[in-house]
Each structure stands twice: as C-alpha cells, then as structure tokens.
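Q: What structure does this chain adopt?
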Amino acid sequence: MEDCKIKNLYNLEQTIAKELLEKYEYPWEVLPHIEEYILKLGNSLDEKEYIKVKETVWIHKTAKVYESAYIGDNCIICKNAEIRHCAFIRKNAIIGENTVVGNSTELKNVILFNNVQVPHYNYVGDSILGYKSHMGAGSITSNVKSDKKLIVIKKEDKEKDENEYIETGMKKIGAMLGDNVEVGCGSVLNPGTIIGKNTNIYPLSSVRGVIKANSIYKNKNEIVDKINQ
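A:
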C-alpha cells in the first residue's frame, strides 16, 4: 500500500518529529512512541527558545496560549503556535509551528505538522496531521471501532474489484492526513482512515479506508481526481 507510506504522505521537513517518523514505514506505527519521543526531545530543546512550564511540557516563547486552555502531560508546542480559548490538550501532543488549536478542540496522542489548523470544535486522537492540513468546524477523528476490534487499514480498488488490507494489531488509530488535506465541516474520519496529499473531503462526510492523493471525496461512491494537479 504505497499510498499509506509516510514518505508519500508527508514532507518531514515540516515537523519537529522528523527523526521519529523517519524510523517507520507507516504512520500508525509511530503512535505508540509519541510519548517517549516527546520526553526525549523536550529535554534537548534550547532553553533560550522554549519554556518548560511543567515537568513534561515545553512551550516556545513565541507561542500564544490562552489562559483558559488546558495542557496535560507530555506536550511540545512550537514556534508561533496558537492555543485558543478552552482548547483541551489531554496528553502526548506535538504541535507544530504556526499551528492553530481552537476553541473546544481536544487533542490526544497526536503529531500536528507545521501550519495545521484544527480551529473549531474538533477532536483529534491517535492521529497525524500533515503540513497545512485543515479540519473544518466540527470535524473529528474517530479512533476506536464500535465493536472494539483491532483496526485493519483497507484500500478498495473498484476498477479491479479487489481490496488490500493491512492488519495493524492496534485498537486505537484515528486518521492520517497527508499534507494540504482539507476536511469539510462536520465530517467524521472513521478509525484507520488514510487521506492522501492535496485531497479535499466534502462537508458532512463519513470517511473510511484509504483515500487517494489529489482527489475530491464527495461520498464513498464518488471520489474524483482534482484537475490540474
């Protein structure tokens, strides 16, 4: 499944987590190691640039964090990030440069690349969001199946009438958004969703499986190529 590989989803120059991501082939393999990486990286950050606000939280001096925001354990908030009113960062979050975490947005065990926007009422858990990806108001990642079974990554090929599968062995995986992905308002990204670079998701969509790069997702039966990509 080439579409799902880290090298085809992300520009690793656009994250402070480059060293971690380079170790793995698929992005969900990174999720169990985010906490450990934050603790290692945090203690090596330049004290002239980052403030250690508590034992396992480092915030760049240029980041703007509203007083009403909650920041839990194991977090790195990078240069010029903005953590807005009533944001809820539970734990294990790497928040890239110029990234916006908005009103009532909740994060847990995530990597947000530089220039990501999750600005309004979003839930992002056990997920990786690529450079300049954007989640519209009320769009969320769902990270656990309703039957609580282990997550399988599924790619459909309707032209060949066949499917590909990868068994992850993991119970919690949210969504992996490639660079420049746009998710429309009110959409749900089901467990194990992979969205390729430069793809747009229509508002109010329920998305699952692997969505190819440079496409427009209208519904599960209508995914069209972008023009002039």
